């Protein structure tokens, strides 16, 4: 539309210019005393001018439609093939033959000793000869025990044979001082004498004797 208006305005301008020229010529004819014929010629000439209106510009062709982009079809989704896990083959268990049991020969068991013969019953008991208090006196006091003021009571047991002699001495309770206990068991087997115990037949039999010995520091 703007292009058409411009053309039309240009034509109008041309027409205005031509009209001005014509009017100037007419005026000039009037001024210069030209005859009506001259005016007519001019008018006739003017009629010859054929001002053709330029045809309107052809309408613009509409822009071509955008080319359609060919659709690219996405490939069909194909599920992956399932993963096939190969079966696990258990290893072959090779069973080793069992070794034959080892038989360890056992040492022969020693036969248990025969039980001791029963003690003969005492018809007559064991009796000490003399005073047991005289078996060990203050003169037998160990010198070291005297210096250390050691005193106490030693319990003892004497094993007495069928002949009345002491065969063994055992401390049954300590005085608290080893030298006193050892002195007692060292002297008693040598000094103690007994009338042996006898069975019903009057034969001497082994027996035991138990007593206590008091160790007391002698006074000066």
Automatic annotation (TrEMBL):
UniProt subcellular location: Membrane
Stretch list, region Disordered: 50-83, 105-138, 196-220
PROSITE patterns assigned to the protein according to its UniProt record, in alphabetical order: TONB_CTD (PS52015)
InterPro entries xref list: TonB/TolA_C, TonB_C
Keywords: Membrane, Transmembrane, Transmembrane helix
Domain (TonB C-terminal) ranges: 126-220
Entry-linked Pfam families: TonB_C
Membrane topology (UniProt): Single-pass membrane protein
Bias (Polar residues): 204-214
Residue ranges, compositional bias (Pro residues): 53-67, 105-120
Entries under NCBIfam families matching the protein: tonB_Cterm
Stated name of the protein: Energy transducer TonB
Lineage: Bacteria, Pseudomonadati, Pseudomonadota, Alphaproteobacteria, Sphingomonadales
């Amino acid at each position: 539309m703007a292009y058409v208006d411009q053309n039309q305005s240009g034509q109008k301008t041309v027409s205005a210019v031509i009209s001005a020229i014509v009017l100037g010529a007419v005026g000039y004819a009037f001024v210069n005393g030209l005859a009506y014929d001259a005016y007519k010629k001019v008018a006739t000439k003017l009629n010859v001018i054929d001002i053709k209106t330029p045809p309107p510009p052809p309408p613009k062709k509409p822009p071509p439609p955008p080319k359609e982009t060919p659709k690219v079809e996405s490939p069909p989704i194909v599920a992956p093939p399932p993963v096939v896990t190969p079966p696990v083959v258990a290893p072959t268990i090779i069973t080793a033959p069992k070794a034959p049991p080892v038989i360890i020969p056992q040492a022969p068991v020693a036969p248990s000793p025969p039980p001791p013969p029963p003690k003969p019953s005492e018809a007559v008991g064991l009796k000490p000869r003399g005073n047991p208090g005289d078996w060990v006196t203050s003169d037998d006091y160990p010198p070291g025990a005297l210096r250390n003021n050691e005193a106490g009571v030693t319990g003892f047991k004497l094993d007495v044979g069928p002949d009345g002699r002491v065969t063994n001495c055992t401390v049954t309770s300590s005085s608290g001082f080893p030298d006193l206990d050892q002195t007692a068991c060292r002297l008693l087997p040598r000094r103690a004498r007994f009338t042996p115990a006898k069975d019903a037949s009057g034969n001497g039999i082994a027996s035991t004797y138990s007593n206590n010995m008091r160790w007391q520091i002698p006074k000066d």
